[in-house]
Amino acid sequence: MATRAEMAVEELRGEVSVRASGEGQRGYNRGVPGDTGVQGQAGEARTRMEPMIEIRKLNLKYGEKLALEDISLDILKHKVTAFIGPSGCGKSTLLRCLNRLNDLVDGVTITGTIRIGGTDINDPNLEITELRKRVGMVFQKSNPFPKTIYDNVAYGPRIQGLPPRLAMDEIVERSLKGAALWGEVRDRLQESALSLSGGQQQRLCIARAIAVEPEILLMDEPCSALDPIATAKIEELMAQLKKQYTIVIVTHNMQQAARVSDYTAFLYLGALIEYNLTKQIFVNPSKKQTEDYITGRFG
Amino acid sequence: MRRFWKSGDPFIWLSGGALAFSLVMVAGLVILVLVNGLGSFWPSPIVRLTLAGGKELMGQVAQREKIPQPGAPPGTPERYRIQVRVGNRDLYGADFVWVEEANIVRRDFPAEAVLIERQEWGNLYGFIKEVRDGDRVVARGPVDGWKGLQATLPGAMSTSREIRRVEKKDIGAINYAQEQIRLRMKKLGMRDREGSPEVAQLQQELETLAAKYRVQEARLAELRQSSRQSLVVSAAGDKVKELSLAQIVRAYQPNAMGLWAKSGLYLSKLWEFVAGEPRESNTEGGVFPAIFGTVMMVMIMSLVVAPLGVLAAFYLREYAKQGAFVSAVRIAVNNLAGVPSIVFGVFGVGFFIYLVGGSIDRLFYPEVLPTPTYGTGGILWASLTLALLTVPVVIVATEEGLAAIPGGMREASLALGATKFETTWRVVLPAVMPSILTGLILAMARAAGEVAPLMITGVVKLAPSLPIDGFWPFLHLERKFMHLGFHIYDVGFQSPNVDAARPMVYTTALLLLLVVLVLNLTAILLRNMLRRKYASSTF
Ligand SMILES: Nc1ncnc2c1ncn2[C@@H]1O[C@H](COP(=O)(O)OP(=O)(O)OP(=O)(O)O)[C@@H](O)[C@H]1O
Ligand SMILES: [Mg+2]
């Protein structure tokens, strides 16, 4: 772990020295929230980099146990944001707040606000299904439905009202292509999704999520069960997808975070320690804890 | 020794032994039922016994056993006796006699001996003396008589079939229609509309029906007139019996038959058993109404228990807040499966029949009262009682299936913007289907074999008509019905003629096993089809 993380950092150093300076000139650095939030930001950066998700003073308790503590951060549109941190620090919990999947857990209490595209998602008048249509999710463990490949992808669109069959065929094809799976399954769309390999199943889950055309895609360790080739495919996919979607990814793999994300948030024991440009975090972290974690000294 | 125990071999032997023991027990039971049940249709030869006193007996050997000789010194020769089915109950009074083998002077197997299965009085064994048409003798003697019988019997049998058809179908339909009209008139009368034109019209219809009835009756009389042929048979013990050919179900000479003829007869008797109506207080003929009743009852029960159990399980597992109360309910449901079935029967009588059925009668069938319609045992109430009895099985199986569905599947659906109901309906229900079917299979197996609660909720020894027939509304759920399990009990233990009924007990038991097997296989095939559709280890 330690060596791998260090390698990732080494890898980045060379690159950043060239690019980070250029971006800094254009004011990107200032637009990015620092480690505590965006209060007092330059108006110029706000207009250029409108935040898709604004999280303010978020606290979450499972029963009596505090799992997230006073989290504030902005996630920017059409960027990939990575959440990193040691196991149990609350990455998944934070991610699941964004589509209110934590509502299903008994005994959670949430305070603070989360705005997505300007609307408060914890507003009791908000249709939770509408929110979830805008915020798609890919889970750590691939979880295709025990249905055919076609029906898996068509599930979301069907839920939202059945488009005519032809349109559905098109949606399925487009989504599978979007998830780089079309070539492998085009001849077996009517076979059970469970007959696919693990990596294919994960890409199917991505296809299923993008079939409903969400604005935001949440990915919780999407590659943790995949081999390097499948991982590479999914990473490639993310680079494609971020043109259309805002992506938030949770990962334990430092190299992956460094490769795919534009911004990185480091969480530790439920608190947001540092949030910055990925390059900044990996090359020049401002907090000792962050540095210790990414260089593998603990975690 | 320790090493031996640790090696695990004793455990393998132990578990293997337990399995083998269970298999042997079950196989023994099945073989016993198979041999006794299927063997009973085979036409065994007719033996003529001449006893020491010069007395003659004729019939089929039913069994042979050792005569117990308590206190006899060792070395005494063993003595045996045989049970002979001599039939001719109308002549001798009893179907079976025991004969000590030592008393038998002579045994022979006369080729001309005939066995006649009759509508009444059971089998007749003897030699044909004459075949008559009215007062005229058509053929005489065992050989010519047999030929004469062969020539006339098919015609006579088709006539008697026609008579029965007219009696049951045509006249039955008229009677039914008349009864319906009378009830409608009574209903109008109860509403003080006796003088209305409707009543006059019904009166009119009644008269048309009466005219139709007279026509059918004339036809019946004509048919009866034409079937005047009869057969005179001499039986052992210098008895003579004359019987109308219309009485004959089947006549054959087992001693003169070859293997092929016997096989054909065997199949025809087997078919009669499966597809025919019972005769002679159920000791002869077929059990079709009982098969029909059993299958239909299990079907109705499944139709009720599947949705009930599945919905209850869904509520318990998906919607109810898990806690002490739900756990208590769960334990209670599991324990319900252990309540003796007769208790459910008593509940069925008290709740379904008296309360629900009685109320239905008062509300919808006041014109028939005091004769109950739904306020008495019937196939609907029996099925509902059994549904209640088996609902824990379905609940438990479904709940276990629900618990086994990975939570990620539900979250994936919710994350796509599905509501909880859509998730349950489109993802959870299909995934849990195999478990539901497993529960249903167990429930059906239990219901098909249950007898005690049925005895007080609607099963009868002999039901006059099936719960489905050609009369509106075709499905008569209030009717009493016959059931294979009860049939076994009735024939085996309540029959006046236990010896004659014994083969029926085995064959009926065999049939019940088959019915349960077929019902289960259907459900299992269905389940496997579902599983194959989503071939994977997830289920
Ligand atoms: N349903 C739950 N009920 C109670 N506590 C929970 C629940 N889910 C998570 N927690 C707790 O909240 C904390 C954060 O969990 P979370 O799953 O967000 O961690 P994570 O950062 O995603 O870890 P990992 O990297 O191992 O997936 C943990 O201490 C965990 O024990
Ligand atoms: Mg996690």
What is the CA-CA span between the terminal residues of chain B?
42 Å
| CATH-scheme architecture of the largest domain in chain B | Orthogonal Bundle
The stretches of 5 or more residues of chain A where confidence is low (pLDDT under 50) are: 1-5, 8-47
Helical run tally of chain B: 15
Oligomer class: heterodimer
Q: How much β-strand is present in the residues of chain A?
A: 15-25%
Q: What is the CATH level 1 assignment of the largest domain in chain B?
A: Mainly Alpha
Name the largest protein-protein interface in this structure. Answer: A-B, 28 and 24 residues
Q: How many structural domains can be distinguished in the coordinates of chain B?
A: 2
What level of helicity do the residues of chain B show? 55-70%
Q: Which class do the helix and strand fractions of chain A yield? A: alpha/beta
Overall pLDDT level of chain B: 86
Based on helices, strands and strand pairing, what is the structural class of chain B? alpha+beta
CATH-assigned homologous superfamily of the largest domain in chain B: MetI-like
Spans of chain B of 5+ residues with little confidence (pLDDT < 50)?
Answer: none
Inertia-based shape of chain B: flat
Task: Throw out a few tags for this protein.
heterodimer; A: 299 residues; alpha/beta; six-stranded mixed beta sheet; four-stranded antiparallel beta sheet; 13 helices; globular; disordered N terminus; B: 539 residues; alpha+beta; MetI-like fold; 2 domains; six-stranded antiparallel beta sheet; five-stranded antiparallel beta sheet; 15 helices; 59% helix; 14% strand; binds adenosine-5'-triphosphate; binds magnesium ion
